Amino acid sequence: MLLRHTPTEVAERKALTVNPAKTCQPIGAMYAALGLSRCLPHSHGSQGCCAYHRSALSRHYKEPVMAATSSFTEGSSVFGGQSNLVASINTIFEVYNPDVIACHSTCLSETIGDDFKQIVDRADKKGSIPEGKKVIYCNTPSYAGSHVTGFSSMVKAFVDFFSESTADKLNQLNIIPGWVEPADMRELKSIAATLGVNIVMFPDTDGVMNAPQTGEHEFYPRGGVTQEALVSSGDSIATLALGPTASTAAAKALDRKCDVPFEVLELPIGLSATDEFVNALRKKGRVKVPQCITDQRGELLDVMTDMHQYFYGKRVALWGDPDQLVPLAEFLTDLDMKPVYIVTGTPGKKFAKRLEDVLDGRVPEAKIAYGAQADMFLMHQWIKNEPVDLLIGNTYGKYIARDENIPFVRHGFPILDRTTHQRFPTLGYSGAIHLLDQILNVFLDKKDRESSEIDFELVL
Ligand code: SF4
Q: What is the pLDDT of residue 258?
């Protein structure tokens, strides 16, 4: 029992966090920056922070993550990192030749109070930023927020630094996809293309964090939203912001800056949320839903009804990012499952209200926790007191799964101990079928493993 010291008695805690259900802001900023074509993320802080952020992303996406760092030493920690960043900008453009450097701060540079605008202006005056190249930035102190809010801040920086409006509106929609897998971003583009809606999606890590093997090392893989597309987002008809926590800030900034109206939706995970997304695309893009999308929906309904006996009444514990958890809880409830424990380390009171809205009183026993003290320790205590049939969340749940012998579906970020999750979507109707496949398989695996010889069945 790896977690044998977890007590069943839940004590109120004000300061202590044990096994947090989140990670730090710069990881999100780095992931978002990788979704911009020929962009090199830059971590303004110590080498250790940058190494951790890169390794967290590499371990999840199984791809090399290129990023630079200001490499703070004792001196910069006391006197500030201005000279390090100015020197970094010069070196990065000379040696690595990106089109954009996307800087984010760290706990250290935030505590010192380094001013990105002033430092980047200084680098520009010194001639360190070549013609046609850009340095963008956002603040990501990790003693606040989580990796999701860091992601949100960098996506907003895309708008602040690139989006422009002209007198001519373009026949296109913006999609801000939120923090999802590269395969999910591909799925969103595919749904929009099937409906015949032109889109600009940002960020877009498809083709970057799931890049094909070409036999040649590509420092900047071919994917990512282009600067031209980002500039044109200011002339789009409207923006669909998917995932309120990760995408609302950028959508609002674009509305303020370029007068592009926006609608915020939950991530299209499961039947109801995908219906909302497809319907929003249909209305805003003024198109009809083609038969092939209706057929995909029908396939999902077929699995939901055919396999209902395995889903009905199952108690589920979920943890991870708010934008994933809300539509996931809704989907599970649509399946007649019971998401009874729902935990995110990302702060924000709206999370509980969003969950109440989608659960709509269907799971009155549901316990919801968010913020710093909403951790894996608390989740485990709840499970010890009243067990569940299924766990859905990132890799950090594997200790609970092992100790309590509970089927476990890995979902969200980070997944450190499995592979190919970045290549198969869980968004859209097809993604929902993939998710159901994973859930059914862990239930049936447990049944096979634990059934007696008499009850051991060859057929489902
Ligand atoms: S929490 Fe702060 S100090 Fe730690 S890795 Fe993240 S940015 Fe660096």
A: 98
At 368 the three-state DSSP class reads strand
Q: Which atom of ligand 1 is nearest to the CA of 108?
A: 3
The H or E element spanning position 51 is helix 47-61
Atom from ligand 1 closest to the CA of residue 27: 6
Residue in this structure with the two tokens 């960043």, named with its chain if needed = 85
Alpha helices in 126-226 (DSSP H): 147-162, 182-195
Q: Tell me the average pLDDT across 242-256.
A: 98
User: Per-residue pLDDT tens for 345-386?
Assistant: 999 999 999 999 999 999 999 999 999 889 999 999 999 999
Note the pLDDT tens digit of each residue in 155-195: 999 999 999 999 899 999 999 999 999 999 999 999 999 99
Distance CA(284)–CA(287), nearest Å, equals: 8
Pocket lining: 24 vs ligand 1, CB cutoff 6 Å: yes
Q: Which domains does the chain have, with CATH numbers?
A: 25-151 (3.40.50.1980), 173-294 (3.40.50.1980), 295-450 (3.40.50.1980)
Q: Is 52 in the pocket of ligand 1 (CB under 6 A)?
A: yes
Nearest CA to ligand 1 atom 3: 107
Apex 295 CA angle, 294 and 301, nearest 5: 90
